[in-house]
Amino acid sequence: MDSKLHSLLQDIAQKKGNITVLTGAGISAESGIPTFRGPEGYWTVGSTVYQPQEMATFAMFSHIPDEVWKWYLYRMGVCRNAEPNAGHYALVDMEHHLADRFILITQNVDGLHLRAGNSLERTLQIHGNVHHMRCSLECTGTVYPIPTEVEAKGKEDALTETDRRHLRCPQCGARTRPHILLFDESYNEQHYHFYSALNAAKKTDLLIVVGTAGATNLPNQVGREVFRQGGAIVDINIETNPFAQLAEQCERGFFYCAPSASALPAIAAVLLGN
């Protein structure tokens, strides 16, 4: 670790500053989950191959809901078979020691942070969670776990009548939809913690960005808000990206070019005085 970064982390720890961690696909890739826009995201319906940005829309769900559910149930199975890695567990240690000084904002829908042990109260899942569903008609804002009767799908598996019966809103009986922020939808507070994420950024003394390419709006707003407030920014990634560039413009910013499974435990050790 760079000696200047080590000193910065010690300084923030001594001053008991607020720490926000923003995670993206990179940390999950180290657990074997393919990145969303990679080859595994493409989906074939009949003779047509759809890109992820086409499948993950409410317009597509409205047109071919069974295919969209099949795609997300396949992704659910991939996520279910993955295990948290050392980077996930380092963030659990940070939350346990830092308590209300810690917030985790994640773009990942795989639920690995929660499985590792981070709390739902301090984990803002700003893109939703692939293991959950909600009413497609929004008769209620309640988010439900996908029933255990609905099994994960292989790429060639079709929805069964049992699946269709259980993928219904318990309140009104309408179809449910995956609890995921879709490409033709906007962030909101109720489901995607829009204002909570920005409020956390305003109070952040250190922002640690992990494995994200900065391709979505709210994470970029979080980064820019921390920058405006004069907070420190550390970007962890195996390749340069907009957050690395933002960190390098920051007076107290660092680009830590390393896998998160090794970088996060090293950072946590300094912050927690281990």
Q: Would you kindly provide a brief summary of this structure?
A:
The protein is of the alpha/beta class. It has helices at residues 3-14, 25-29, 52-55, 58-63, 65-81, 86-98, 112-116, 161-166, 189-192, 194-202, 217-228, 242-249, 260-271, and strands at residues 19-23, 43-45, 48-50, 102-106, 123-125, 128-135, 144-145, 176-180, 206-210, 232-237, 253-257. The model has no long low-confidence stretch (mean pLDDT 93).
Secondary structure elements and pairings:
Layout: H1 3-14, E1 19-23, H2 25-29, E2 43-45, E3 48-50, H3 52-55, H4 58-63, H5 65-81, H6 86-98, E4 102-106, H7 112-116, E5 123-125, E6 128-135, E7 144-145, H8 161-166, E8 176-180, H9 189-192, H10 194-202, E9 206-210, H11 217-228, E10 232-237, H12 242-249, E11 253-257, H13 260-271
Parallel strand pairs: 1-4, 1-9, 4-5, 9-10, 10-11
Antiparallel strand pairs: 2-3, 6-7, 6-8
Helix pairs in contact: 6-13, 10-11
